[in-house]
Prior knowledge:
Shape: globular
Strand order of the largest sheet: 1-2
Helix content: 40-55%
Number of strands: 6
Radius of gyration: 22 Å
Strand content: under 5%
Amino acid sequence: xxxxxxxxxxxxxxxxxxxxxxxxxxxxxxxxxxxxxxxxxxxxxxxxxxxxxxxxxxxxxxxxxxxxxxxxxxxxxxxxxxxxxxxxxxxxxxxxxxxxxxxxxxxxxxxxxxxxxxxxxxxxxxxxxxxxxxxxxxxxxxxxxxxxxxxxxxxxxxxxxxxxxxxxxxxxxxxxxxxxxxxxxxxxxxxxxxxxxxxxxxxxxxxxxxxxxxxxxxxxxxxxxxxxxxxxxxxxxxxxxxxxxxxxxxxxxxxxxxxxxxxxxxxxxxxxxxxxxxxxxxxxxxxxxxxxxxxxxxxxxxxxxxxxxxxxxxxxxxxxxxxxxxxxxxxxxxxxxxxxxxxxxxxxxxxxxxxxxxxxxxxxxxxxxxxxxxxxxxxxxxxxxxxxxxxxxxxxxxxxxxxxxxxxxxxxxxxxxxxxxxxxxxxxxxxxxxxxxxxxxxxxxxxxxxxxxxxxxxxxxxxxxxxxxxxxxxxxxxxxxxxxxxxxxxxxxxxxxxxxxxxxxxxxxxxxxxxxxxxxxxxxxxxxxxxxxxxxxxxx
Length: 540
């Protein structure tokens, strides 16, 4: 997609809510979708709300997922970030999702009543399907068949498998609608600017995403479905088709800067610790350094931590503690004391949060030359598509060469990062050296599917930086990246350095949801969503 800035001044109050740094804000466009004012019933206003709400929901799931998947430091236990408060309340991801579904139904009703807005509805139904996939991926069984029915106060939770199939059917409906008309196009589509071809590409790609998860239990059927989609074409397979949400440099009173920026580049310094494991994968895990390292993270100093700045020093429980060259992070589940290092610790860089490119400025974030927070949320990129296809081609019969898909995916990830927001272009020689190193590693693993899968998923994890949602699915689906040749190596998923409890295979409902609906039974985090057929203890 082209990074479209906001033209919707009429909706600026709504934008102010989503840009808040808490990452799970409510966009209070409606409180009762069945009792809207005439102004709120405007199709463009409604669609704008659907898109904003979805972005808020995705952000809310993304925050804890980045900690779970070791993109940033998990401080303390898994239970500290996955609990009954995580998705709870009127502003939570669960409640916001179902308000969004109510507005989507209203758009459908308007279209059926003669408003002639098939593209609005096609876009909204694509978002509905994506949101349903997210709910199932994180909560398992969720209300669908009885949801948003005013006559039913306590809807039943439908089996996750049925909701997944319903979402796939909704995508088929969306594609038909998106192919219906090129008139009455939305004026409020800040994702694709009403480009119906791009929305159809997203719909088809979401099917690939779903069938990749379903392949754990039905590999042949999933491969057949994906191959059918590939034969028809029109998927997210080019960088300019990426499904991203774009922020701006506008600060208060209407906060529209990226949460990575507002959390780490304002007075007071950086609040986030980066993951030592993830930075090690970028810096030291292969024969060559990853060229994306200086785009992903920013060093506020070039010196090593010392004394009270490094409480992990000398403690054998740590795998990394400090990886050198000014990269100050923390190991997974490191909950030891927090030194006063807000203007020293390594934090998010220019990609994707619009911070600073690391050209060895070695100054605090607030004093750095940076992009002002005009970053993106990389919700689904073309590189992700090719990583999924590489996984499927290697494991269960998706058409194509897995190594070819892998090379395309890595190249597209580099293309995405290179020159981002005015940063330097990645040197072509560095790209080639990196690809050569990965290709040699893959060739040396010939005949060892597990080892080749490790390489694919490690590279997928590195391309997903900033997107914990797809990484969380990948972790549960494959258990990767764990190096089969050396499971205890520093290149394998780092285990918690202190007891963190069982890895959450599913999130829990908010306490208010369970209290107010006797048809919903609370999850245990050790349970698994329907497509996760891997054994207990698969990941820690």
